Amino acid sequence: MKFPKPHKLKEIANLIDCKFVGPEDFEILGMNEIHVVEPGDIVFVDHPKYYDKALESAATIVLINKEVECPEGKALLISDDPFRDFNKLTQHFKPFNSANKAISDSAVVGEGTIIQPNCFIGNNVKIGQNCIIHSNVSIYDDTIIGDNVTIHAGSVLGANAFYYKNRPEGYDQLKSGGRVIIKNNVDIGALCTIDRGVTGDTTIGEGCKLDNHIQIGHDTVLGKKCLIAAHTAVAGCVVVEDNVTLWGQVGVKSGITISKGTVLFAQSGLGHTTEEDKTYFGSPAIEARAFFKERAYIKKLPEIIKKINKL
Fold this sequence. Notes:
- This protein is of the alpha/beta class.
- The chain has helices spanning 9-16, 51-55, 82-93, 288-310, and strands at residues 2-8, 19-21, 27-31, 41-45, 61-64, 75-78, 108-109, 114-115, 120-121, 126-127, 132-133, 138-139, 144-145, 150-151, 156-159, 164-167, 170-173, 179-182, 187-188, 193-195, 201-204, 209-210, 215-216, 221-222, 227-228, 233-234, 239-240, 245-246, 251-252, 257-258, 263-264, 269-270, 279-281, 286-287.
- It has four helices and 34 strands.
C-alpha cells in the first residue's frame, strides 16, 4: 500500500508515538507485508524468529519491538507493539468510509456493463466494459474489475483478511487496507468470496474461471487461465501460476506456490509448493501416480498376509 504522498520518518513516528532510528527526514513511501515489500516501505516484525528476515528484506523501514543495529541505508521504528501500530497506520491512511447508497458516486462503471438489482458497489470501485454483475453481489471499496467479467449472485469481493494475533484478551485482527483486482475475461460463480489484501492486492488473473462457493484468501495471486471447481478454499499469500486446475473441495495452505500447469484432484489438501505440469491427489497431496500406486499395494496386503501366514 503506497501513501498518497511521501512522508518523513519523524512524521510516521509521531503518528504512532514511538522512537525512531535514522535521519528524521528519511523518506517513507508506503507500508506492506514482508512478501510484497519494496524500497520505501514499512514492514512490521514482532517475533525474534523473523527479525533477520525483516531487517534484510527490501523494506527500508522496519517497525520492530526491539532496539537492534540498524542496517545501512535503512531506518527503524521502535515500538512496544508493532502489530498494534501497523494497524494504526492502516487506519490512518486507509480508514473505513461508510456508504450512503448502493452504488457509490466515486465508482466508475464501463460502457456496456450491466449491474443487476440489489448489488453494492463501494467507494473508488472501477468496473470495465461489457461486464455482468448479477443480483446481490457486494463489491467493497477500491476493487478493480477488468472487461468482460461475469460475477454471479451473492459473491463478495473485498472482505477483510482472515489474519489475527492471539492476545490474552482475545484475537486481534490485522486491518486490511489492500485491494481485489479482477483481470479481463474472468467468470466468478455464485456465492464466492475473494478477500482483499492486507496491504497488497488479491489478484484473479486474465481468463480465470471460478465455480460456485469458492474462497480466495488475502494477497493470493492467480495467474492466467486457472480453473477452480466448487468448494475450493485457497488460503492467503498463495501464488497460483498460469493454467492451474483445482478440482472440487481442494484446500490449499498459505504461503506456497502452485506451479504452472499443476492439477489437483478433488478433495486434495495441498501443503507444499508443487512442480510444473504435475498432477496431485490426497491429503496431504502427493503426485497422483504415486498415490494410486500406493493404493494398489494396499489392496494387495490381505493377499500378501495370507501367503505369509501359510509359510
